[in-house]
Amino acid sequence: MTEEDPEVHLGQLRRFSLHELQVATDSFNNKNILGRGGFGKVYKGRLTNGDLVAVKRLKEERTQGGEMQFQTEVEMISMAVHRNLLRLHGFCMTPTERLLVYPFMVNGSVASCLRGTLTSLLYQRGLM
């Protein structure tokens, strides 16, 4: 079995190799962790062209049909277009890894921005 399935094509999304993302994140070094969530860790990375990215390394969950489910989720995420959403930049899928690649947000995570906005709104309305 090859490390990556060359048959998987998901629209205009870039398919990254595992090696590219390992190099970008310094082998998923803990010093590059931006956050942790229920689905895995997010790492800051720098691609060889200099672009900063956030790489979400999904937790390993081996389920029947898991590869198809991952492909479907990636397709759905890539179609979501809204001015307040980050666009999915690309993905990596190997027999053992599932990774999503997003543009790096200089001002923090979406969750922290939303928390800050909510806190500010509650403060302005005298509810905090």
Automatic annotation (TrEMBL):
It is a single-pass membrane protein. Keywords: ATP-binding, Cell membrane, Kinase, Membrane, Nucleotide-binding, Serine/threonine-protein kinase, Transferase, Transmembrane, Transmembrane helix. It comes from the Eukaryota. InterPro entries: Kinase-like_dom_sf, PERK1-13-like, Prot_kinase_dom, Protein_kinase_ATP_BS, Ser-Thr/Tyr_kinase_cat_dom. GO terms for molecular function: ATP binding; protein serine/threonine kinase activity. Residues 28-128 form the Protein kinase domain. ATP binds at K56. It is found in: Cell membrane. GO terms for cellular component: plasma membrane. Its EC number is 2.7.11.1. Its main location: membrane. Pfam families: PK_Tyr_Ser-Thr (PF07714). This is non-specific serine/threonine protein kinase. It comes from Vigna mungo (Black gram).
